[in-house]
Amino acid sequence: MSLNSLWEYANPKKFIQTTDRVLPWVAWSAALTLVVGLVWGFFFTPDDYRQGSTVKIIYLHVPAALMAINAWMMMLVTSLVWIVRRHHVSALAARAAAPVGMIMTVIALLTGAIWGQPMWGTWWAWDPRLTSFLILFLFYLGYIALWEAIENDDTAADLTSILCLVGSVFALLSRYAVNFWNQGLHQGASLSLDKEENVADVFWYPLLVAMAGFVLLFIALVLMRTRTEIRARRMRALLARERMGA
Amino acid sequence: MMPDLGKYADAVLSSYAVSLVLLALIVWLSLRRSKRIKSDLEEVERKVKSNG
């Protein structure tokens, strides 16, 4: 697929037509993969010799944290496309992704707190990764509020795109905070190309399936929500035209 | 069938409960808004068409 053919999907009609066919497949794949990953992780994996049964929280915490950061990265890319090419679908896709990313951030924060209590003896610490994740959550809230607060769609897309660029610093920090500061309670990446740092295979395979499930769920939700935003924008445009004509 | 979660049962079960509720919530809200906007748009389009 050439880059030019990719821009065809910036046409709202083409986007709706294509996702009509794609969305059911992505949604059912997400449901299946998520169920397999979570059932495998919860029921068919052993306890960890240090963390006991709390290791089962990894199948929610790590995929949610992964998607919390990558949702913002997706919003960054689509916001840049809006700034450079002025394609409405890309701005609406960023808008559609924000609540999903925020939910992923909340899941990561809550499961992290619940996991941290028995392991670290505290629900919360002002650790670099935890703190940058909390700031990322606040950026999600601010981003969603900004879209809601501005009536003009293009102005809202411009301002939220700038906010997205600024928030990307914290999205990256939440990923690499442990490496930058090398301190705090939180461990490094659970999945790494360095075999020594990786979790054991018995936990890793169901974790990969759960992560795939979260990725597919995110894609399905963003496609569905982008279609909704496209329709809502068309409705606002029609109503505005009606008012002008009246 | 239920695995023995030992002394960490509360932590593990509450993590799963909170996460699944939040995932179900975002799916439900997204579906609900999608249906509502779709039917609202159809109504507006019908109205615009009838007004010429």
UniProtKB/TrEMBL annotation, chain A:
GO terms for molecular function: heme binding; heme transmembrane transporter activity. It is a multi-pass membrane protein. Keywords: Cell inner membrane, Cell membrane, Cytochrome c-type biogenesis, Membrane, Transmembrane, Transmembrane helix, Transport. It is found in: Cell inner membrane; Membrane. InterPro entries: Cyt_c_assembly, Cyt_c_biogenesis_CcmC, Cyt_c_biogenesis_CcsA/CcmC. Residues 17-186 form the Cytochrome c assembly protein domain. One of its GO terms (biological process) is cytochrome complex assembly. It holds the Pfam family Cytochrom_C_asm. The chain crosses the membrane at residues 22-45, 57-84, 96-118, 130-150, 162-182, 202-224. Its main location: membrane. NCBIfam families: ccmC. Belongs to the CcmC/CycZ/HelC family. Required for the export of heme to the periplasm for the biogenesis of c-type cytochromes. This is Heme exporter protein C. It comes from Roseovarius tolerans. The lineage of its organism: Bacteria, Pseudomonadati, Pseudomonadota, Alphaproteobacteria, Rhodobacterales.
UniProtKB/TrEMBL annotation, chain B:
One of its GO terms (cellular component) is plasma membrane. The keyword Transferase does not apply. InterPro entries: Haem_export_protD_CcmD (IPR007078). The keyword Magnesium does not apply. It is a single-pass membrane protein. It holds the Pfam family CcmD. Its main location: membrane. Keywords: Cell inner membrane, Cell membrane, Cytochrome c-type biogenesis, Membrane, Transmembrane, Transmembrane helix, Transport. Required for the export of heme to the periplasm for the biogenesis of c-type cytochromes. This is Heme exporter protein D. It comes from Roseovarius tolerans.
